[in-house]
Amino acid sequence: MLDRLLNVLTGREVPQLHAVQDGLDLAVAALLIEAARMDSTFADAERTMIERLLAKRFSLSHEDVQTLVAGAHRKVEYSAQYFPFTSRITRELSCEERAEIIEMLWRVAYADGVLDPHEDMLIRQIAGLIHVPDRERGLARQRALSEAKSPD
Q1: Assign residue 52 a region: left if phi > 0, alpha if psi is -120 to 50, beta otherwise?
Q2: Predicted TM-score (pTM) of this structure
Q3: Exposed end of the chain (fewer CB within 10 Å): N or C?
Q4: From the centroid of its chain, how far is CA 18?
Q5: Rg (CA), the chain
């Protein structure tokens, strides 16, 4: 540990601050949290949906999801732009996978039973930033809405 600190201080090694937290999972979680916050509330139903979606998408344990959501929440609070998140998603995912991310965003938006115009605007904006065609965005919305209306 001391060797590593010495290497960082002398410039022989680049510090790896938050390297584990800056992955694709964090980018997706941050966008989901931003969607939940767009209507000025972060309802329990939205949080539950986010946790469920992240656990399923990234095969995470309950504790890992909690850590991821907390880290993503901090990132969203201190970031004024979506580019770091959307660029990672665009680089690492196929078009089909990016459409799945849009569907996840719709599921969060519909989780509290009401689609706020700000949520709708955000999802349209993110779909454009991650290059999801309008048709795919619309289909993702229909699937999410259908699930939101169906009884469990």
Answers
A1: alpha
A2: 0.82
A3: C
A4: 17
A5: 17
Cα(32)–Cα(64) distance, integer angstroms? 16
Is residue 42 within 8 A of residue 105, CB to CB? The reply is no
The rounded distance, in Å, linking the Cα atoms of 62 and 55 is 7
Burial track 14-45 (b if 16+ CB lie within 10 A, e otherwise): eeeeeeebeebbbbbbbbbbbbbbbbeeeeee
Q: What is the pLDDT of residue 114?
A: 86
Give me the amino acid identity at 113.
G
Query: What's the per-residue H, E or C state across the chain?
Result: CHHHHHHHHHCCCCCCCCCCCCCHHHHHHHHHHHHHHCCCCCCHHHHHHHHHHHHHHHCCCHHHHHHHHHHHHHHHHCCCCCHHHHHHHHHHCCHHHHHHHHHHHHHHHHCCCCCCHHHHHHHHHHHHHCCCCHHHHHHHHHHHHHHHHCCC
- Residue with the bigger pLDDT between 133 and 14: it is 133
Cβ contact 137:123 at 8 Å: yes
Query: Is 100 in contact with 127 (CB distance < 8 Å)?
Result: no
